[in-house]
Amino acid sequence: MKVKKTNIEDILIIEPNIFKDDRGYFMEMHHQHRYDAFLSNRVFVQDNLSFSKRHALRGLHFQKKHPQAKLIQVISGEIFDVAVDIRQGSPTFGKWTGETLSETNRQQFFIPEGFAHGFCVLSETAHVSYKCTDIFYPEDDSGIVWSDPDIGIDWPITAPILSEKDQNLPTLSSLASEQLPIIDNIK
Predict the structure, then answer these.
(1) What ranges in the chain are assigned the alpha helix state H?
(2) pTM of this prediction?
(3) What CATH number does the domain located at 2-179 have?
(4) Is residue 61 annotated as part of the catalytic site, yes or no?
(5) Per residue in 171-183, pLDDT tens?
(6) Pick the catalytic residue: 33, 127, 130, 137?
(7) Is 25 an annotated catalytic residue?
(8) CA 45/CA 91 separation, integer angstroms
């Protein structure tokens, strides 16, 4: 397995080992002991699967009191996946990084606690699997508008399909500090 760093510390791109033969391929999507070395012994407690159509954009979401680290992988299709640093006091606060994930490249995107997360679908449809280190609390759910001009994400689509909730999310600069997750171990 290969692990690559991104332009924001602690966000990783993981290339799992793929074992191919005449039947197809096999891969481990997660192996706690193997991943402990570079994911700081995080334990994933909830698995999610989303199905979305072309140009659907989900995000940018986060939880305030129960921040989640996420391990994202595309099962079918292709997405552009984004993480925005919203850790107060972080030297990369308000910065973003993105990665194209697909059923072809089989890469995983690891996003630690304290980041807003979102993705848009580039293929006709996409199944996206992601593991979380905390459960989802609806009352703790929050987000940032996908088109926040101060963040300036270079999305590969211009007219996304959004939920009503995602259309009405605030900008990062309009959020008070108590509306952002508090992360104690910022490097």
Answers:
(1) 32-39, 164-167
(2) 0.92
(3) 2.60.120.10
(4) yes
(5) 999 998 888 987 7
(6) 130
(7) no
(8) 29
